Amino acid sequence: MGFNVAIDGPAGAGKSTIAKRLAKELGFVYVDTGAMYRAIGLYMLKNSVDGSDEAAVSEAVKNVEVTLSYDDGVQCVYLNGEDVSGMIRTEEVSALASQISAYQAVREKLLDLQRTMAKNNDVLMDGRDIGTTILPNADVKIYLTASVETRAKRRYDEYIAKGQTCDLAEIEEDIKTRDHNDMTRKISPLKKADDAIEVDSSNMNIDEVVETIKNICKEKM
Ligand code: DC
CA–CA distance from 149 to each of 87, 97, 119, 158, 178 (Å)? Predict the structure, then answer.
């Protein structure tokens, strides 16, 4: 078993930015599990499978193979052999990923892949259910959160920086919907594990969050 760090939390709390930086500093493999759900969401989009139809999604997911590779420490996600790392970063795919991640067949598909990565490597894995379901025995569990307003503004700034047009109020609504979906679904809802340490990043910059979590990890290592 590698040294396992689980970072869970809602959309836009800064999990991936923080986890990426921290993984690099600690020399760990960064596993972005949201990207795996997004890849499956993208498959449904490409194949015109209705995301609200659980039976159809559960059938279609049998044809999906998600794999990861690392290029200079950067995670690339493959959907049936095609690198889709860039294509999964849209609001449309994000909404679909949230929808299909509620289904058992989808979660089961990814469970083994995620656990195997954690078994074979020192990992920093980010997601929604890592500390509660995927790696209940993780060495460190962090629940990273921030206010809805802060998270919406961060997403907004990201899209603008990429040259995409977007609307702040709309993003805020999307985040609320996604929080609701992720926290109320029946299987593996987003929730703080009892033994997770909560870090609220609303009034912290990236360096401060990285430093805080790094110190927690170092204490345990
Ligand atoms: O972190 P993200 O925005 O890339 O995640 C996309 C969606 O995938 C999110 O709405 C919830 C789902 N997800 C999940 O259910 N479990 C995880 N471990 C990671 C993501």
Answer: 26, 22, 37, 14, 14
